[in-house]
């Protein structure tokens, strides 16, 4: 069994699976259960300033979308930061950390953008002995209306400023949690780095309305006939998170900045994908909220098996796919593929045909007996047929070997790499460097 | 009463009432909304879907399933009823395993088809439970059409004609409408008086007058109907039953399976329905299976279904055969009755094994006897009382096109017409198509 022990910016945990700052980590009772189930670490639910705690709504705070068998695909929430007294949280954090010295505990913090406010809470967090802090610059609902959460995360200057304060007043790792509700994730990441952050974590939740009640015409979740946007998470957001993680991992300005990957991690495979795109560990919330803490056991066994099968150590996986993330303009235009339908696997549903005929390139022929065949002279290799086919591996993309004729273009496939930057149709084309 | 499965002879009350209720409950209980959503999600929404082609009424199955999946079973029902106004009954009695579900790509791929029949029932039940009828009559045409037979073909024809604005009178020999839906299908396939409820629902279209207890050739004649009406549709089914042609056939307790099934369907109290201890059913079709299974469910100790050819020739679907086997019916192939033995009432039936020879089925030279207190014939029905002057083909009314008979202004469909495969759903298709043809003819006049 592969060694999954993780060292993320100096914070050690027996595995790279942490629970994200969220309801599952709101108090000692839950966190103890999480550690007993096997979680490597937790980011404690976000702490606010001393004083009267925040209040939450007293109606539904979550909304969801589902597949047909009520498989939860996406979850949103309008819950605020912890609504328990600061001192109670701090005492519990200290106690749990003392009892579980091998597990990681990180304090998530959200206080107003005032230096004193940060200094005061940092001193108290430091006393608990937890392993680090995460700055909640991400929550898009409620707190953002009060100038915190994503309201900070959307202004790189604020991120840099607050991060700098934290590095000044706190001597353990500082992780900056980023909001995806911005145009370019690299800017806040760069700001965090410039402020001295040890790492960034992303993504926080995405502005969302999960549904509209078509009888009462209210957004969901609905509170007394009204609804407010919430933060979206769960399996549905993973592709967005993966892309944002990869952008930070590959940008020269932020490359090498440690990343804690968050966003729809539901299985070991999701986690492995985040790691391959540059995340040093992952944080999980919705999967635990959907299935309970035990899911971590599948994540541990699955990632171990994968690493064993690949003969890789955990560190070998981190960032392994980053060099392969590039810009569109550098994609090889001489890479020519054609769809291939395995007639033995084909169940003759005709979805590929409908998709191609109605919405794509009319490159699939429907022959007597419901035999579906690719027309190489029309197929642009768009992959839609692969995506809509209900049978895994029934339709695949096969590369035309260089030297063969592409019947669609009438040209022989070239073996050389050639991209848009040198393409004759590109007005700005330049000769490829030899 | 103290009767049990082991009481000799033909007696009632072999099983306690609660066991009978259980036995004759819904064979396939309805899907609840969540089950329907999950079942609907399995549909791939195939292009030019094979299931539609396999459906004799060409229901747009992928569309109605998608309408269920998106929470609009009412729209789904309308998609069904547009093609098949008896979609509720067909959802219950269609041998889906040899029609839509047999060709479902998921059946072919995984051996587990989308549950089209049950989904259809979910949609149609939703609308019928609300007692809403989604169709309205067109403006009255002043034309009058007679429909003979209130079975699936006649009802489908009448509804479509009424919808087009014609006035329809249905004549039926039996006291209740529905035809085989009411009298000829196993009870556990259509519980809670569904056949009558469906007729009542269908009649909401208006413009249809039902005259029950009026058989063609007795209360009415084709000549009179042709005189009185602008068109006539014949859908009276097959009233005759084929004989065994075995010695002693007239012995007591040898009966037609269709009569047994009809009695059972009309019985108010199943515990008063007598059944033999040893029952022998002769035949290889759905009627034979229905009679055999229901004999068993009534409490017969031993039920044997004997078919003269091999298993592969049985017209009962494989599913039905398995259902019978699972209920404890013993199925014997390649044996034909030669003698019914008994003094007054049947005691035994002698069979001879058969084999397939160069000239068809031939005796194999070996006989055996089965004990029998009751024997049901289920070796096919035939047309009885065909109107004089109408051309027949293979013993049924010859038709061309959409059910046109040799007599001008007279159409036919359902079991009494040649062609088709004696299924409820085929009868519905034929009735519907004849109605369209009649309408086109009347509109052109």
Produce the secondary structure layout:
The complex is a heterodimer of chains A (about 425) and B (about 450).
Chain A: E1 6-8, E2 11-13, E3 17-19, H1 28-37, E4 41-47, E5 62-66, E6 72-77, H2 86-99, E7 104-109, H3 115-128, E8 132-136, H4 150-153, H5 156-169, E9 174-177, H6 186-194, E10 199-202, E11 206-208, E12 211-213, E13 218-220, E14 230-233, H7 238-250, E15 259-262, H8 268-276, E16 279-284, H9 286-291, H10 295-310, H11 314-317, E17 337-341, H12 351-359, E18 364-367, E19 371-374, H13 384-388, E20 395-399, E21 405-406, E22 411-412
Parallel strand pairs in A: 3-4, 3-16, 4-7, 7-8, 8-9, 9-10, 10-15, 15-16
Antiparallel strand pairs in A: 1-2, 5-6, 6-14, 11-14, 12-13, 17-20, 18-19, 21-22
Helix pairs in contact in A: 2-3, 3-5, 5-6, 8-10
Chain B: E1 10-11, H1 17-23, H2 33-41, H3 50-54, H4 61-69, H5 73-83, H6 87-93, H7 100-103, H8 105-110, H9 116-129, E2 144-148, H10 152-163, E3 167-172, H11 180-183, H12 194-203, E4 208-212, H13 222-228, E5 231-234, E6 240-241, E7 254-256, H14 257-266, E8 275-276, E9 278-282, H15 286-298, E10 302-306, H16 318-326, E11 330-332, E12 335-341, E13 348-357, E14 360-371, E15 374-377, E16 381-382, E17 392-393, E18 396-397, E19 410-412, H17 424-444
Parallel strand pairs in B: 2-3, 2-5, 3-4, 5-19, 7-15, 9-10, 9-15, 10-11
Antiparallel strand pairs in B: 1-8, 6-16, 12-13, 13-14, 17-18
Helix pairs in contact in B: 2-4, 2-9, 4-5, 4-9, 5-9, 6-9, 10-17, 14-15, 15-16
Describe the structure.
The complex is a heterodimer of chains A (434) and B (445). Chain A has helices at residues 28-37, 86-99, 115-128, 150-153, 156-169, 186-194, 238-250, 268-276, 286-291, 295-310, 314-317, 351-359, 384-388; strands at residues 6-8, 11-13, 17-19, 41-47, 62-66, 72-77, 104-109, 132-136, 174-177, 199-202, 206-208, 211-213, 218-220, 230-233, 259-262, 279-284, 337-341, 364-367, 371-374, 395-399, 405-406, 411-412. Chain A has 434 residues and is of the alpha/beta class. Chain A folds into two domains: 6-324, Alpha-Beta Barrel (TIM Barrel), CATH 3.20.20; 328-433, Alpha-Beta Plaits. In chain A, a hairpin with a 5-residue loop joins β5 and β6. The model of chain A has no long low-confidence stretch (mean pLDDT 96). In chain B, the strands form six sheets. A five-stranded parallel β-sheet of chain B has the order 4-3-2-5-19, sandwiched between helices. Chain B is globular. The termini of chain B are far apart. Classes of the chains: A alpha/beta (434), B alpha/beta (445).
């Amino acid at each position: 069994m592969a060694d999954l022990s993780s060292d993320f910016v100096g914070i050690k945990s027996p595995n790279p699976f942490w629970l994200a700052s969220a309801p599952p980590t709101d108090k000692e009772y839950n966190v103890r259960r999480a550690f007993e189930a096997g979680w490597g670490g937790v980011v404690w639910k976000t702490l606010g300033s001393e004083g009267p705690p925040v209040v939450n709504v007293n109606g539904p705070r979550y909304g969801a979308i589902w597949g047909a068998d009520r498989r939860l695909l996406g979850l949103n929430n309008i819950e605020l930061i912890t609504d328990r007294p600061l001192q109670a949280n701090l005492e519990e954090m200290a106690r749990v950390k003392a009892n579980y010295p091998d597990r990681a505990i990180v304090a998530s913090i959200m206080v107003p953008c005032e230096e004193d406010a940060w200094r005061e809470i940092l001193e108290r967090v430091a006393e608990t002995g937890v392993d680090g802090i995460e700055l909640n610059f991400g929550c898009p609902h409620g707190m953002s209306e009060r100038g915190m959460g994503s309201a900070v995360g959307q202004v790189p200057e604020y991120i840099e400023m607050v991060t700098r304060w934290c590095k000044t007043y706190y001597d353990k790792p500082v992780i900056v949690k980023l909001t995806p509700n911005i145009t370019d994730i690299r800017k806040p990441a760069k700001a965090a780095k410039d402020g001295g952050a040890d790492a960034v974590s992303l993504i926080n939740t995405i502005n969302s309305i999960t549904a509209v009640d078509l009888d009462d015409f209210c957004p969901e979740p609905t509170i007394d006939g009204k609804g407010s946007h919430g933060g979206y998470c769960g399996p549905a957001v993973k592709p967005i998170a993966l892309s944002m993680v990869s952008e930070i991992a590959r940008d020269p300005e932020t490359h090498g900045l440690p990343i804690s990957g968050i966003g729809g991690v539901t299985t070991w495979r999701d986690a492995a994908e985040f790691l391959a795109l540059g995340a040093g560990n992952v944080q999980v919330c919705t999967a635990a909220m959907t299935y309970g803490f035990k899911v971590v056991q599948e994540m541990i066994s699955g990632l171990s098996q994968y690493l064993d099968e690949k003969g890789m150590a955990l560190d070998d996986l981190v960032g392994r796919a980053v060099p392969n993330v590039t810009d569109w303009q550098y994609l090889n235009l001489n890479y020519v593929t054609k769809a291939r339908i395995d007639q033995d696997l084909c169940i003759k549903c005709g979805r590929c045909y409908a998709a191609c005929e109605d919405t794509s390139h009319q490159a699939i022929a429907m022959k007597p007996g419901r035999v579906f065949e690719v027309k190489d002279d029309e197929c642009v290799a768009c992959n839609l047929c692969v995506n809509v086919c209900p049978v895994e591996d029934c339709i695949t993309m096969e590369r035309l070997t260089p030297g063969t004729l592409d019947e669609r273009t009438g040209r022989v496939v070239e073996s050389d790499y050639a991209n848009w930057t040198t393409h004759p149709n590109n007005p700005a084309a330049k000769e490829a460097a030899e | 009463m103290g009767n049990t499965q082991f009481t000799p002879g033909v007696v009632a009350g072999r099983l306690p009432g609660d066991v009978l209720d259980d036995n004759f409950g819904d064979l396939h209980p309805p899907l609840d909304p969540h089950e329907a959503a999950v079942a609907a999600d399995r549909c791939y929404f195939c292009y030019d879907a094979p299931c539609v082609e396999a459906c004799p009424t060409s229901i747009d199955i992928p569309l109605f399933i998608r309408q269920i999946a998106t929470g609009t079973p009412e729209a789904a029902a309308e998609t069904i009823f547009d093609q098949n106004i008896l979609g509720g009954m067909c959802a219950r009695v269609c041998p889906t395993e040899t029609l839509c579900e047999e060709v479902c790509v998921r059946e072919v791929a995984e051996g587990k088809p989308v549950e089209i029949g049950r989904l259809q029932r979910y949609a149609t039940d939703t609308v019928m439970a609300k007692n809403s009828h989604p169709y309205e009559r067109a403006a009255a045409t002043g034309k009058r059409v007679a429909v003979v037979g209130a079975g699936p073909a006649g009802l489908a024809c009448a509804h479509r004609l009424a919808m087009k604005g014609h006035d329809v009178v249905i004549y039926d020999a039996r006291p209740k409408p529905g035809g085989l839906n009411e009298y000829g299908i196993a009870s556990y396939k259509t519980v809670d008086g569904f056949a009558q409820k469906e007729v009542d629902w269908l009649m909401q279209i208006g413009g249809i007058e039902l005259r029950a207890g009026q058989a063609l050739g007795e209360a009415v004649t084709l000549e009179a109907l042709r005189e009185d009406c602008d068109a006539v549709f014949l859908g009276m089914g097959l009233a005759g039953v084929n004989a065994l042609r075995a010695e002693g056939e007239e012995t007591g307790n040898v009966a037609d399976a269709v009569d047994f099934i009809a009695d059972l369907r009309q019985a108010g109290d199943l515990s008063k329905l007598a059944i033999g201890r040893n029952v022998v059913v002769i035949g290889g079709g759905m009627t034979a299976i229905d009679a055999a299974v229901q004999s068993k469910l009534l409490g017969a100790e031993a039920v044997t279904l004997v078919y003269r050819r091999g298993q592969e020739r049985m017209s009962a679907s494989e599913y039905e055969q398995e259902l019978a086997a699972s209920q404890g019916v013993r199925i014997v192939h390649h044996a034909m009755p030669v003698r019914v033995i008994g003094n007054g009432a049947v005691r035994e039936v002698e069979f001879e094994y058969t084999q397939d020879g160069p000239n068809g089925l031939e005796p194999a030279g070996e006989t055996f006897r089965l004990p029998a207190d009751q024997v049901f014939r289920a070796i096919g029905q035939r047309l009885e009382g065909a109107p004089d002057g109408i051309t027949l083909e293979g013993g049924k009314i010859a038709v061309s096109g959409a059910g046109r008979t040799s007599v001008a202004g007279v159409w036919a469909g359902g079991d009494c017409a040649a062609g088709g495969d004696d299924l409820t759903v085929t009868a519905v298709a034929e009735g519907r198509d004849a109605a369209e043809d009649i309408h086109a003819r009347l509109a052109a006049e």
